[in-house]
């Protein structure tokens, strides 16, 4: 991998993590599997790799989004977990990702059609915890990039998964030609520097910042995360406004756009309420709103996720398990993402 594993755009500083959590700060843990496609043990081959994701998880959304935009849907298979984790009465315990297509959504009153049984290992496992257990790991998180041939986990850090899918898209079986397929991380050093700078801002203040605001139990920590989040949105609004850029670095969709999209996709219908990020909606930022609609219109984006899963996953874990039905003004989501003109009201 080209990325330094301690880069602030990939993972959070773990110093004094236990004490910080005790104080009330959300501290995201570090992913334990950091192998790379292209290494001798994991050659880039079409049909060899598999993703385990949950659509409500924004880190998983990065991986499913990369798979869709790069034209890898037919060559990288994928299993989708139910968005609400196991309950206290589950024999295996609570708070575990479950691959159970029969589980009924409290929002829709029926199963989600996107949810699947486990097909990657060939063992029909129910829990992602069991997939990790095959390798003696106690981890439970998604996404997981899995090698079906060697029966091993390749990587479970989303920032690295999207980088390697992009780097090896052609060999992995992309249905898009090199000309048609976007390159998330172009070789131009100036472009890479800009993407790296944006990645750090987006990860620290927005991707991880949303969780620091929503899951912190200390008012001062929440307030700082809230301020950083909206300061970053203002910076990105200005970035897009400069020269009326269609994407964050200019005319092409890059890794910075991909990493920003899952959070902003969730902001108005989910995070504005659930993460207490009610300072503004993305609709209030005309350039960001039009950018969001522009990305949503790209091939492979819509099918990479579901706001129904997001609503179930985020609000189904709240204290009373009741899931809000809105917002309905100016219209329902995600249909609103097909209307860039809404920000001109």
State the gist of this model.
The protein is mainly α. It is built from nine helices and four strands. Helix 5 (189-215) runs parallel beside helix 7 (255-274).
Structure description:
By secondary structure, this protein is mainly alpha-helical. The chain has helices spanning 17-23, 58-69, 128-133, 158-167, 189-215, 219-241, 255-274, 286-296, 307-315, and strands at 49-53, 77-80, 144-147, 152-155.
What keywords describe this structure?
Glutaredoxin; mainly alpha; 2 domains; 345 residues
Layout of secondary structure:
Layout: H1 17-23, E1 49-53, H2 58-69, E2 77-80, H3 128-133, E3 144-147, E4 152-155, H4 158-167, H5 189-215, H6 219-241, H7 255-274, H8 286-296, H9 307-315
Parallel strand pairs: 1-2
Antiparallel strand pairs: 1-3, 3-4
Main pleated-sheet profile: 4 strands, mixed
Helix- and strand-based class? mainly alpha
- Please state the overall shape, judged from the principal axes of the Cα atoms: globular
Taken together, the total number of domains comes to 2
Mean pLDDT: 94
């Amino acid at each position: 991998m080209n990325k330094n594993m301690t880069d602030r755009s990939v993972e959070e500083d773990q110093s004094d993590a236990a004490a910080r959590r005790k104080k009330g700060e959300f501290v995201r843990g570090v992913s334990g599997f950091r192998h790379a496609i292209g290494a001798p043990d994991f050659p880039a081959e079409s049909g060899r790799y598999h993703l385990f994701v949950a659509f409500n998880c924004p880190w998983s959304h990065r991986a499913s989004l990369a798979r869709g935009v790069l034209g890898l849907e037919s060559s990288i298979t994928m299993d989708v977990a139910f968005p609400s984790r196991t309950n206290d009465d589950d024999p295996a315990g609570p708070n575990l990702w479950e691959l159970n297509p029969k589980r009924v959504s409290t929002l829709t009153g029926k199963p989600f059609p996107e949810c699947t049984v486990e097909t990657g290992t060939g063992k029909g496992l129910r829990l992602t915890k069991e997939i990790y257990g095959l390798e003696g790991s106690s981890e439970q998180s998604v996404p997981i990039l899995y090698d079906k041939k060697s029966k091993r986990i390749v990587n479970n850090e989303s920032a690295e998964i999207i980088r390697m899918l992009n780097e090896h898209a052609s060999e992995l079986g992309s249905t898009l030609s090199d000309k048609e397929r976007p390159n998330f991380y172009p070789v131009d050093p100036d472009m890479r520097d800009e993407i790296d700078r944006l990645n750090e801002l987006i990860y620290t203040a927005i991707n991880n910042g949303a969780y620091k605001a929503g899951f912190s139990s200390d008012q001062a920590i929440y307030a700082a995360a809230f301020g950083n989040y909206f300061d970053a949105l203002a910076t990105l609004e200005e970035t897009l406004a400069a020269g009326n850029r269609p994407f964050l670095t200019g005319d092409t969709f890059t890794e910075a756009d991909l990493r920003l999209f899952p959070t902003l996709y969730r902001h108005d219908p989910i995070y504005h309420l659930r993460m207490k990020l009610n300072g503004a909606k993305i609709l209030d930022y005309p350039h960001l709103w039009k950018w969001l609609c522009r990305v949503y219109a790209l091939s492979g984006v819509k099918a990479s996720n579901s706001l129904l899963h997001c609503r179930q996953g985020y609000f189904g874990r709240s204290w009373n398990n009741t899931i809000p039905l809105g917002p309905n003004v100016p219209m329902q989501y995600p249909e609103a993402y097909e209307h860039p003109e809404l920000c001109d009201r």
